[in-house]
Write a structure and sequence with these properties.
alpha/beta, 7-stranded mixed β-sheet, globular, Methyltransf_25, signal, SAM-dependent_MTases_sf, Lys/N-term_MeTrsfase_sf, Citrate synthase-lysine N-methyltransferase CSKMT, mitochondrial
Amino acid sequence: MAALRRTLHVATLAAGARRALAGSLAGSCLADRRLWDKLHADAGRGSVPTFDWFFGYEEAQGLLLPLLLESGAACPPRVLDVGCGTSSLCTGLYTKCPHPVDVLGVDFSPVAVAHMKSLLEGGQGQTPLCPGHPASQLHFMQANAQNLEPVASSGSFQLVLDKGTWDAISRGGLPGAYQLLSECLRVLSPQGTLVQFSDEDPDVRLPCLEQGSPGWTVTVQELGPFGGITYFAYLVQGSH
């Protein structure tokens, strides 16, 4: 969570807005949708179309691309990004992955979803995003990551991504974080992989994931440092 706070200082926002958002972040529950609506609305006024907590697609692609190639069962493999916000993770996979991929980004903030749909479609005078492979697809939907029933059936994704969403929800209590994990594993195929990106120490995160993922294999990989911060990729995997 330290990195979540620190990354506010690199947002493309006026200094006054940065200070206000940092104060809101320190004093608010990160599971409060109003906080994120305001953050995404303010960030959307900047010159950079996406805003990333922790790091973006470029730093994650070395881990993600091999996982996509290993998924094998579906072509194109389906990827779900829970709590996508206005991150470059979905757009990077869509525009830069040389292999076909079907990506769905979900977020409970309608502001974030509207911004990403506009970016995809070329709204506000921008050029529409072009896929890195002709068969690739990208969609964004408003949904609560703790209840994905309206947008995702069981076992329908080969790769599920969570970049900071567990971190944000757990600030409101671990029961909410475990509900998030349960939903991610429900929509994940039995041979799929859930990846949680975080700066939280393995001594804290691993016991939680192992407790909440019976029958799945939980491992961790170190990423970075990026911007002087070491991150971790927590992988929850079925049988491969």
